[in-house]
Amino acid sequence: MIVCQQCGSELDQDMRFCPTCGSSAHRRQQTDQNIDKSSSLRVKRWVTRGVVAAVVVIGVAVFLNQLLRTYHPVIEAQPVVAMSTMYRDDRTPSTLIEASMEDGSIAIPLKVVQEKKLVRFFDPEKKQDIPMIAYVTPQGKLVTAMSKSEQCGSTDFYLSGNDIHCACGSYWNMASMEAYACCQKFYPDPFPSRIVGEEVRIDPAVIRNWKSRL
User: Fold this and answer.
1) From CA 49, how far away is CA 37, in angstroms rounded?
2) Which is more confident, 15 or 207?
3) What DSSP assignment string belongs to 14-73?
4) Which of the two residues, 159 and 57, has the higher pLDDT score?
5) Do 79 and 178 share a domain, yes or no?
6) I need a labelling partner for 13 at 20 to 30 A (CA). Which of 39, 57, 204, 210 fits?
């Protein structure tokens, strides 16, 4: 049984008109169906808008988190050598390159660091056995660091997303050195460097006098 929306009389399902007031039961049913469809569409629109708004808010939050991230104290003082960018999630291994001595400083080509994203090199005079690395953060800062994590003994790393990873599974944010796994304090230890022309220059005394943090 259905009820006439005009007068409230009970109607059989097959009745087209109300016997009491003559109102069309079919028209009222269609109207109700249209109202239901319209309400459903409005709900879907609001749900879609809510999802889109949430995605935008999350995206902006992630971007600002990376852009405004606090630097490690040594990295804070480093030169900017590239535009701010977001790294891809692809794994980027280190590329072994040759360093040279120029005017009493250890030197590597800046262009190679920018192209390879992560380079690894040794003291050209072999007075320091531990290798060094150089890379550019997503914020464009040049980072030079000792390529060793004393906790696990690893001397090689790779980049993925916005982090630098150790072979043991530990990883740190490239700019802040904030840790996300074990080896909290034993990230690749940053040291200062400078740009001279097209080269990254490093004071050899800094890396030759470096001492383990253990």
Assistant:
1) 18
2) 207
3) T-SB-TTT--BHHHHHHHHHHHHHHHHHHHHHHHHHHHHHHHHHHHHHHHHHHHTPPPPH
4) 159
5) yes
6) 39
- pLDDT of 182 higher than 80: no
Strand partners, 95: 119
Q: For residue 99, count other CB atoms closer than 10 A to its CB.
A: 22
**3 state SS for 149-207:** ECCCCECCEEEECCEEEECCCCEEECCCCCECCCCCCCCCCEECCEEECCEEEECHHHH
- CATH code assigned at 130: 2.102.10.10
| Three-state secondary-structure class, residue 74 | helix
Residue 171 lies in a domain: yes
* pTM beyond 0.70, yes or no: no
Q: Which residue has the higher pLDDT, 87 or 205?
A: 205
42 and 98 both lie in a single domain:
no
